[in-house]
Every structure is written in structure tokens, then in C-alpha cells.
Amino acid sequence: MTVTTNTASKAKPSKTQTAKPTVFIDGEAGTTGLEIRRRLAGVASLSVLSIAADKRKDEAARLAMMRQADLVVLCLPDGAAKEAVALIASLGSDAPKVVDASSAHRVADGWVYGFPEMDRGQAGAVKGATRVSNPGCYPTGAIALIRPLVEAGLMPADYPVTVNAVSGYSGGGRSMIEAYDAGKAPDFELYGLGLEHKHLPEMQKFSGLARRPIFVPSVDNFRQGMLVSVPLHLDTLPGKSGARDL
User: Which of 137, 145, 179, 216 is flagged as catalytic?
Assistant: First the structure.
């Protein structure tokens, strides 16, 4: 991996002069950004741009990075991600491709949902897209369980679905990680019980459900990992489908 530290005042090679595809992680100092950077460190075929720490909120410096990049990965809160997309769009024909790790664009028009295994055509759609929204953690499990059943006609689109999920604490961000690492957090906790969790829109849309599922998320005292389960009343399914059919 080639790491280049840049500020707005330093001239860098243009995209056409750079031998390797170039990635800029906008928000590289956050939990998600650090993890993506760690993973990209093992990809020798990519060059990763890194902005100076004192320029991370400097719009001109970020725009200069975006202008040089072939791909920008957004690791920002939803509002900041929307602002970053507008900044990228200002580059016109020089705008790089974008992968947004926030939930800001997961059901937005003009964005491809970055779940290549979702159906037969999704991998090709992701490959050809200029704007990809990275799926949420919980929806990835729920969609993988529910969508095949809906598409096969084993579950009606309006079936009353409940999704139960347990997540490790790293997905809660820096404050939650620090609380668990310090032993100050509960071993197990339900949350988001107002039925308005930000993952619900993508969970419903890409599962193919006509009605909103009941989603019950929780966090447990382990760093990473997730268990997603969808209980079904077999005697309420079409044709009384059994476990073998599912």
C-alpha cells in the first residue's frame, strides 16, 4: 500500500499519472475508517491517500483529495456524508466513484445497494456503479434470510416478520467501545425499541417486504460478531410450508 499524506497546498499526481487506482477515505480516523484502512493495507494494487490530521475538516483540503482519487469511501455520520456527496458532485466529470458506509443513501435513488450476493444481478450492478451504499450490519443478515423466502413464494410480502438480532459492541462506535473495554457497560442490553431504527427502511425494501418488520436489536459483551434470527410460524405460511421447503 502506498500512503500519501497531503494538504491542500501540496500538488499531487493527477489520476491519469497515478499507476495504481487511488482511494481516499473521508473519515479515516473513526472506527469504520480505521478498519477499512487496516484492510486496504493488505492490498498492494491500491494507493491510499491520507489527509493531514489538521485538515480533516478543511473542505478545500478534502476536495483536493477527492479530485485526485478514483474512489472515495465515506466513513462519516449521515449528515456529513450527504454534505460530502454534494462536495464530490461539484467536481463534475472529474468526480470519483463513491462508497458510502453511512445509512444516508441506502434507499436513495441513484445509489446501488452494495450487497452483491443479494440476487443474481447485484454483483454486476455494484461493479458498474458510480455510487454504492454499503449495507447495514443488521440488514445484511435479515435480507439474506428473508429475501429468498419472499422470492420463492414461501413467505408473502405482507407476512408479519420479526427480526431479532444480537451484535458485538464495536458497531456502537468509540464511546460504546470504551465503555465495554472499561467494564462500565451492561453485559446485555436491548435498544432501539421505538420501531424506528435507521436500518428498518433498507431491511424492508431489500427483503421485498410490503410491511415494516418488527426489529429487536441488542448488544452483548463481545467485540465483533452478530446473530440475526427470524422466527416463523410454519402453519401461517402459504401451503403450510415446512422446514424442508424453507
Answer: 137
Q: In the chain, what are the domains?
A: 2-104 (3.40.50.720), 137-240 (3.30.360.10)
List, for residues 188-234, the tens digit of each pLDDT value: 999 988 888 999 999 999 999 999 999 999 999 999 999 999 999 98
CA dihedral 42, 46, 48, 49 (to 10 degrees): 170
pTM of the entire predicted model: 0.86
CB atoms within 10 A of CB 137: 16
Q: Write the DSSP assignment of 122-178 as a string of letters.
A: HHHHHHH-SEEEPPPHHHHHHHHHHHHHHHTTSS-TT---EEEEEE-GGGG-HHHHH
75 carries an active-site annotation? no
